[in-house]
Specification:
Largest sheet: 4 strands, antiparallel
CATH class: Alpha Beta
CATH topology: Alpha-Beta Plaits
Strand content: 35-45%
Radius of gyration: 15 Å
Shape: globular
Number of domains: 1
Structural class: alpha+beta
CATH architecture: 2-Layer Sandwich
């Protein structure tokens, strides 16, 4: 059973490090569902943006500890996907205006 694209890709990540990876290595960063697998992520990116995915790397990011006075809480854990596209492919969302 395959999940819809909007359940796999939560949002694109636009960061300074991500922009360098995009310019130098044709890699794009996304926040994805923690249960998503690499093949699911690749299919979702290809379907959503009409590009060819060459490689997917994932990172499980641990949530930071946060304090409010003496109360200690935590931000939730999340998953980051680093997607490398075929040469010549690009995602318009990441283009600067």
């Amino acid at each position: 059973m395959t999940r819809p694209v909007h359940e796999i890709i939560i949002r694109p990540l636009v960061t300074e490090k991500g922009m360098l990876a995009r310019e130098n290595h044709n890699q794009f960063l996304f926040k994805v569902n923690p249960a998503a697998t690499k093949p699911e992520i690749a299919r979702a990116v290809e379907k959503a943006f009409s590009v060819k995915v060459v490689e997917v790397r994932t990172v499980n990011v641990l949530g930071k500890k946060k304090r409010r006075g003496r109360l200690v809480g935590r931000r939730p854990d999340w998953k980051k996907a680093i997607v490398r596209l075929a040469a010549g492919d690009n995602i318009k969302y990441f283009e600067s205006t």
